[in-house]
Amino acid sequence: MKENSSTELQKVFKEIVLTLVSVVEYKDPFFRGHSERVAANCVRFSNHLSMPREFIESIYLAGLVYDIGMVYVPMEIIHKPDKLTPEEMELIREHPKITEKILSNLRFFKNILPMIRHHHESFNGEGYPDGLKGEKIPIGARILSVADSFDAMTSERPHRPALSNEEALKQLNARAGQTFDPELVTKFVHFMTPEEKTVRNEGNSAVIENKTIQKAVSDVVMAFKKGLIEFPAFPSVIQKIQDALKSADKTIDDIAGIIELDQVVTLRLLSVANSSHFGGGGKTHSVAQALSRIGLKDAEGIVSFIAMKSIYAADNAAVIILMEKFWRHAIATAHVTRALVKRLNETDGEMIFLLGLTHDIGKVLLLNALAKILFKKGETNPINMEDVLASIQNVHANFGGALLKQWGFDKNVIMAVNTHENPALTENTPKMILILFLANMITRRIGSSMFEDQPAGVADAIKLLGLGEAEIDAMLEGIKEAVEKSISSI
Fold this sequence. Notes:
The protein is mostly helical. The protein is built from 25 helices and two strands. It folds into two domains: 2-192, Orthogonal Bundle (Hypothetical protein af1432), CATH 1.10.3210.10; 236-489, Hypothetical protein af1432. The longest helix has 28 residues, at 317-344.
């Protein structure tokens, strides 16, 4: 009974947080996704600083709700392109105190109130609301201030375009020691900027500079934010099949009809059904027969694999090799999520499986877009692909979240993608996020990832999901075979 009460309390807590965030997002389109991005960057940066787990949990929560006081600021002030009057500025300066007052009525927000109240204090003492100076400003507030300002500068506003990451980092540097903690700014800039190699030679060939790669990444992200480039649409057949499977009155023929609208998926599904993995009983000549042979649950996964495979296509040989590795990792992560969902009896299994398949979509599409810039005709300097991967590693999660938002996914799914590398690992973290993080990381144990090291947070995620290492090891025994089967049959 006590356990049930705790679970119910966690659900209520989660609903309160999401409600508070949605109130701010409803106020202004700028705030949509802003708090999730700030919270995610606070977590990632705090992990980079080796902050204690309790601190990281607190700053994640603070990053989600720190701006709810803005709902009391009139829209005309928020959108005003000109300099604010003293009276208008005074209204803006009230929002940290308003947020603090609102949250002070809920005891589980008690630890984060200092972060929230003081996130607009300046290191030189000229901030608000209390004019705190230097290290008298809580460290959480100083981190939140940097993450908030960076995201605000790199987001488009009605009165100005978004800045590139590079330009935003320059502005943070320019205000270090005044608005921001200079030591934190230095570490944040380093955290957001992979090490540059300004001069490097391999044999007699000059290798293209990491600085050039960084600029290309920034250009792609900026072009996407401005709507200047388009990426592939999300395969509609996947969502239609998921919806159909949730409907009690849909038959195999109904689902077959959905699949048959996509000729490529239809042909590949028939090929899979007639392959050695599912052979026997003669050739299948219709999608309905294929579904009966394979089974609806397995067929749903296979259709998702087939539909997503085209997004991993590439022209350049070096990029093709990476895409094959990304594809293997995506399939492995999807299989692990499915196994975890089954073990935990989760109800939203289809969506979590799809998350496993698409969590790195930002990395995939960034790489393809970069290839068009970096691998130009007539280019003689080779490109170090490790530098390319390092350049997209820090931005791919948020970029993927932005793509899923464009594709129409809900905020819980977007948050899971935004935080899949470094989520807050607490009892209040949604299971969807814990499962995706764990699945993403433990593919390293079966050689289906670009990385080999095992992050410390894996043990925490296993414990929070109520699992044990022995269960994980047993589960992974069959995953490697399933991955090979999927890759060879699709």
